[in-house]
Amino acid sequence: MADYRDVNRANWDERVPAHLASPEYSVSQFYADPGFLSGVVRFDTALLGSVAGLRGVHLQCHIGTDTVSLARLGASMTGLDFSGPAIAAARELAAGTGADASFVQSDVYDVVEALGAVHGDVLGAGGFDFVYTGIGALGWLPDVRRWARVVAGLLRPGGRLFIREGHPMLWTLADPGDDGLLVVRYPYFEQAEPQVWDEGGTYVTTDAVFEHNVTHEWNHGLGEIVTALLDAGLTVTGLAEHDSVPWNALPGVMTESDGEWRLTDNPARLPCSYTLQAVRRPLGRLGSR
């Protein structure tokens, strides 16, 4: 089997131009309005609180719209992504808008070493006030425990993780049929082998036709994620579940309102996303929960 990173990178690389041109990413509005924020970050602000004056790192930043949005809230940001074209687009956006954001190309699991090589130890290991991960990121990673150790390695003691992600229950559901029923079909818990998909298109509005349509993805149960963070030396300080996601995750049974999609019929049935926050414990307490 081909390396999952090569397969997924080809998929993401090819979709960068379509995402840059899409109304969903609103790239032109970042240039037109110095106060404009991405819809994802606007949703997050209520729980995120102030990041002014903080050094933040955004894992799996894609084309940088969320990273630039965090910089506009006053943070000094570093974004990382494994896609070269995405990083190039993010750098262009930051330069064109004057955002305090730099970008490094790296696989998630190599981030601590990559930042150390670029910035030295100050911003390599344990140099950040917060780690931010936006929605739709963890599913591309095969090992959530390894991810949690990366997060811990980036944060200073007392530094904070903030992640909003698609709920693992959402990822178990098959696309609704004509009857609109929600059917649990895919694994809830992390599996050694990926779910392999071969699907054209992308999650934004576009007429583009793509050649690289295979992806390798994994689900991670909420308990697995929390336990991984605890074992990596973080204390969970908040966990909120939401009935919405910022894209039409279940076509035909969801309705959009204010940039978020919810089940049309009784949205309280399904947690569609969650926000998790955790703080790195002092170095002498990494073995305790």
Automatic annotation (TrEMBL):
Q: Which residues does the UniProt record annotate as the domain Methyltransferase type? A: 58-161
Molecular function per GO: methyltransferase activity
Q: Which GO terms describe its biological process?
A: methylation
Keywords, alphabetical: Methyltransferase, Transferase
Q: List the InterPro entries.
A: Methyltransf_12, SAM-dependent_MTases_sf
Source domain of life is Bacteria
State the CDD domains in the record. AdoMet_MTases (cd02440)
Protein name as catalogued: Methyltransferase
